[in-house]
Design a protein that fits this description.
Layout lengths: L1 E7 L6 H14 L1 E7 L8 H8 L2 E5 L5 E5 L3 E8 L3 E8 L5 E8 L4 H15 L6 E6 L9 E2 L6 H13 L2 E3 L9 E2 L9 E2 L2 E6 H6 L4 E4 L10 E5 L22 H8 L8 H23 L3 H21 L3 H29 L11 H15 L4 E2 L5 E2 L2 H15 L21 H4 L1
Parallel strand pairs: 1-2, 7-8
Antiparallel strand pairs: 1-15, 2-4, 3-4, 5-6, 6-7, 8-13, 9-12, 10-13, 11-12, 14-15, 16-17
Helix pairs in contact: 3-4, 8-9, 9-10
């Protein structure tokens, strides 16, 4: 297990921020830490390095990005730019390199153009796994912002263009979808997802189990990003799952009607398969657009409610009460969807409406997963195979043999045990 942290810490000189940084490192044992905008005091750098027990790889030329690296790495400075610090990491004793770019973008659109150009120039020479993470001071869509001025295409087009030109994509995340809050309430309150981690195709292929988690904001107005890698590179494609609460959503039936079509003639079974596949794809896209990630939406709405509650307490106006009730109603809707999701997942029909207990649901799911695990398998010779690789190989061998038998069946006596439901003339 390898962990890393990227955080726009802003106020590392305060005891709260620094204490949290130390505790996070004690808990997760980071391989590297990237800090942005630390309001640094050069006299304290050595103290931070000593308390973290890590090497200070570099403070970038603008002094706004610090990079601490565990001593298991060799590191080489690739680019030292005002808005990003890029280093090449190699685990000592290995021959495998990875590029890490720590980003702290400027606050204006014009200044950020230098960052986008620098990353695109770097892309032309990158032929190893590449991770880019930090505070980009930009969003990619309207969904990544709550309140404030409306999102314009000019605000996002340059960032989107850089992502496309660099051949990188978002690595996803768990936790709240907003990483920054301006600390205000009421009409001045703004949430945004300014911090993210992206990677090129080589990184996603080699480190497919990399996970990004947005931790709670404490010590800074930005959320720390915890990066975890389990070392398990197997990519598991999740099967399509029909969610029962879809049928209660307006537009569901119409969506089915629109997609249960085929523009060609063929065997009925081929047509059925084509329609089913078309509907599954449409439902998956529709669900993502309509509901999003239920668990991330709940975390985001809970954050917004905290702000709205404070706002209403300070200024108990009818408009503030209406805004609070509006967000509470949206949270209630998502909590109901979450409950429906877990009920279906664990197959529990005896829970009454309103008995929301996600911990109970989680426990049942974990219990079912343990029951479904295959810990050993018996081979043709009667011996038991317990090693994971051996289990996989035996399963493949068994089903390969099952589906490649060449002999034709000659004995149809089993058909005599089926009751005759129609006359012989009709049968002929």
């Amino acid at each position: 297990m390898m962990n890393a942290l990227i955080w726009n810490i802003r106020s590392v000189n305060t005891m709260e921020a620094f204490t949290r940084l130390i505790k996070l490192n004690q808990k997760y044992h980071f391989g590297f830490i990237g800090l942005m905008e630390p309001f640094q005091d050069s006299g304290k750098i050595e103290e931070y390095r000593r308390r973290l027990g890590m090497e200070l790889a570099l403070v970038n030329i603008s002094g706004k990005i610090w990079d601490f690296v565990e001593d298991i790495f060799d590191y080489y400075i690739m680019v030292d730019h005002q808005q990003h610090l890029t280093i090449k990491l190699r685990v000592r004793g290995s021959q495998e390199d990875m590029l890490v770019s720590l980003v702290y973008a400027k606050s204006t659109k014009t200044e950020r153009l230098e960052l986008w150009d620098s990353l695109e120039d770097l892309f032309t020479s990158v032929d190893i796994p590449w991770m880019i993470g930090g505070d980009f001071n930009s969003i990619t869509s309207e969904d990544e912002k709550f309140c404030g001025l409306p999102v314009t295409i000019n605000e996002i087009q340059d960032f989107r263009g850089c992502i496309h030109n660099c051949g990188i994509s978002d690595l996803g995340f768990s936790g709240s979808k907003f990483t920054w809050w301006n600390g205000q309430s009421g009409d001045d309150c703004i949430f945004k997802r300014l911090d993210r981690c992206l990677g090129n195709l080589l990184l996603q292929a080699k480190y497919s189990s990399v996970g990004i988690k947005h931790l709670i904001r404490s010590g800074s107005d930005h959320a720390p990003m915890l990066i975890s890698y389990t070392g398990d590179n197997r990519s598991i494609k999740k099967p399509f799952k029909f969610l029962n609460f879809w049928v209660k959503q307006e537009g569901f039936i119409e969506l089915i009607k629109q997609n249960w079509t085929a523009d060609f003639l063929a065997n009925p079974f081929i047509l059925f398969h084509h329609k089913l596949k078309k509907v599954k794809t449409a439902l998956a896209q529709w669900s993502k657009a309509t509901f999003g990630n239920i668990f991330q939406e709940i975390e985001a709405l809970e954050e917004i409610i905290k702000v709205k509650e404070t706002q209403f307490q300070n200024f108990p106006t009818p408009n503030n009460r209406q805004e609070l009730h509006k967000v509470q109603a949206e949270l209630h809707r998502y909590l109901h969807l979450e409950e429906e999701f877990w009920k279906q997942k664990v197959g529990m029909q005896w829970f009454q409406d309103g008995d929301r207990n996600t911990k109970k649901f989680h426990a049942y799911v974990q219990g079912r997963r343990k029951q479904m695990q295959i810990r050993r398998i018996q081979g043709d010779d009667g011996s038991w195979i317990e090693e994971e690789g051996g289990i996989i190989a035996e399963a493949i061998r068994f089903y390969t043999a099952q589906f490649t038998k060449e002999e034709d069946p000659k004995d149809f006596d089993i058909l005599n045990h089926f009751p005759r439901m129609i006359f012989e003339e009709e049968n002929l």
